[in-house]
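Chains adopt folds. We examine one example:
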Amino acid sequence: MAAAPSDESQAVSVLVQTMSGEVVELPRISSMASVRELAVMVRSKLGIPISAQNLVWESEVLSDPSQRLQCIFGDVGGVNLSVVRRPFTIAERAEMYKRLVRAVVAGAVAEFRELLKEGVQPNFRREGSGLEVPVSLSHWEDFAEAADAACPTDSITSIVDAPNAKKKKQRTEMADPEDGNGTDERLTMEPGAEMSESDDEPSDVQEMCGGLTPLLMALAAGEEGLAEDLRSLGAEEPEMTPKLGLADAFEQRNFPEIAKCIASGADLNMCLGRQHGVSATSHGVPLHACVAMRKMPGAFEIAHLLIRKKADLTAGDAEGDNPLAHAKYFDAKDMLNLLQGNGAVIQGPFYTRFGRE
């Protein structure tokens, strides 16, 4: 019986050349490794975010992250790759920043870590394209492999998804997931109920997540470990004492103030009216308002914060319909998934009286 080939004989030697002419030899990698694993190695050695990499072998761009290196290189034992780093656009950096805020409020440590390794900065700035510098924190190394495995990234560019259809046209081989703001073109709402959306790029941090920052949300959610990590990376310290009450903050659509009120122990199930963002009913609770304001940057993040702080998922509006019923009514897919993922079920007469599921 022939001896099985050794791991060494199946390994590939890789030289990577950057556009500046720098040549770096990577550690030998198994031919059964994926393009994604190769990209992680390039990031580790060269500090280039995976989502900013274009790996090229001869004339072939390695665009399928799940493809095995053996299928690409065959029996070649040594390959020369070129890596082209493209700068992130403002819209891409904004999308990644939003994901960082959401990872923080969710307490998703592995995703938080991956986003920082991809170059997301703790303070969003519109100006400058050279800000995607990966960072590292030494205590992460204890669970580096587990965090990489837990990261939901399934393509080299999937961390930077198209924020809207305009941006999608500027990118190739890019996913176009639900943007988290569930648009609804089937329902006719009362005047003023619909929040306007813009395809323009963000002009400042106030337009990003409604002004919510990763550190603010870490503090509001009680994620002290993530807060310390963000501080060590230079995150700007927010003033956590609210200047408004929760109802007034909702009336002004001031999401940072809402987060501070929640962190300060405000009543998460207080009665809010139409002037506070509630729609399709005369009154509801903060979760109803978040669903109604689903198109406003920051509404999803506040809803998630309310849920983490144990807001009542069964609270009814004036007719008895709970926030999940509102999410279904508004076809707010992201809110729907968030509420259902935290155990909510549709309650109230609007759907049950018609036998609707």
